[in-house]
Inverse folding.
């Protein structure tokens, strides 16, 4: 297949593109290489992909509609995997315009390109943050999601609704994946595993919010990619005629923040100095994914436990940064 992967220099996008290339597919990756976090890390990810003969990279901003349309016109895609977005819950509080441009305008442009060029299946990244103030656990895709606590979450819910509208109006098969706290090698520096590891190795205190009374459904990157790739050839069907589907994609079991820190301490061979703080604006206390529907659809459930995944991340971090 010829597959478009947006956000190919990002964490999940890089791993997805790499897997698709190794499976023998022709992959075109696009990314705008913005400076939200280290551009050098993004370029280093791309450097792992460029030796692949079936990979091409295009520097492109999703908000540039004509440039995106040109890519579609020149490269008829069998599948589209949309992982480009302005990430980060807390960053959205101070930088709302960036989220509107990237996550709303950029996604609309992609939907228009899929409509014009009739791609067979669009898979796009949503987020567990859409569950907002929901208290029922585990989170299920049938739960109401009308109480977001950040603009980032609101843009991801908007993407889900926009995809449904385009599926209804134009018959485009669309699948949204609500990702739950993805971590692993080549991860994002703005996320807790990366920040905690850096601080612990440098003897600095780590900020532990809500006094540590938080949990996350931590999901290792290889498990995420396996579920996603298995879903690509399975466009949704729906009895109502709207070819649109949402899935949770996560490990399916929560781990407390302090348990996660303990795994990092074990992998690093060092104790963390903890700075306990109140809950931050935009954060939720717990996440837990009901993943049964996706597991039944693709015949796979996540395999990598948190201690194993954390050790893998730490090994990569030490090697990449030479520490």
């Amino acid at each position: 297949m010829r597959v478009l992967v947006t956000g190919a220099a990002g964490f999940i996008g890089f791993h997805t593109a790499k897997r698709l290339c190794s499976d023998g597919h022709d992959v075109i990756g696009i990314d705008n290489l913005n400076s939200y976090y280290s551009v050098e890390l993004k370029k280093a990810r791309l450097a792992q992909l460029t030796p692949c003969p079936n990979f091409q990279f295009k520097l492109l901003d999703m908000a540039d509609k004509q440039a995106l349309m040109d890519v579609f016109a020149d490269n008829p895609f069998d599948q589209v995997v949309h992982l480009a977005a302005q990430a980060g819950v807390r960053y959205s509080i101070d930088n709302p315009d960036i989220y509107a441009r990237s996550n709303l305008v950029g996604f609309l442009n992609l939907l228009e390109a899929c409509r014009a060029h009739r791609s067979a299946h669009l898979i796009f990244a949503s987020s567990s943050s859409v569950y907002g103030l929901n208290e029922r656990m585990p989170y299920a895709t049938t739960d109401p999601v009308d109480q977001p606590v950040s603009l980032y979450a609101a843009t991801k819910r908007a993407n889900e609704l926009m995809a449904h509208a385009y599926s209804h109006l134009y018959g485009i098969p669309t699948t949204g994946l609500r990702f739950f706290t993805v971590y692993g090698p080549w991860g994002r520096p703005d996320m807790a595993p990366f920040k905690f590891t850096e601080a612990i190795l440098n003897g600095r205190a780590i900020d532990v919010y809500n006094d540590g009374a938080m949990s996350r459904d931590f999901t290792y990157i290889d498990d995420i990619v396996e579920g996603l790739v298995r879903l690509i050839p399975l466009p949704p069907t729906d009895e109502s005629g709207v070819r649109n589907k949402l899935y949770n994609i996560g490990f399916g079991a929560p781990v407390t923040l302090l348990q996660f820190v303990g795994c990092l301490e074990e992998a690093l061979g060092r104790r963390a100095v903890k700075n306990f703080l109140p809950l931050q604006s935009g954060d939720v206390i717990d996440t837990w994914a009901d993943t049964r529907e996706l597991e039944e659809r693709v015949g796979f459930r996540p395999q990598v436990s948190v201690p194993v995944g954390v050790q893998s991340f730490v090994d990569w971090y030490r090697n990449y940064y030479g520490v």
Notes: Residues 69 and 116 are 9 Å apart (CA to CA).
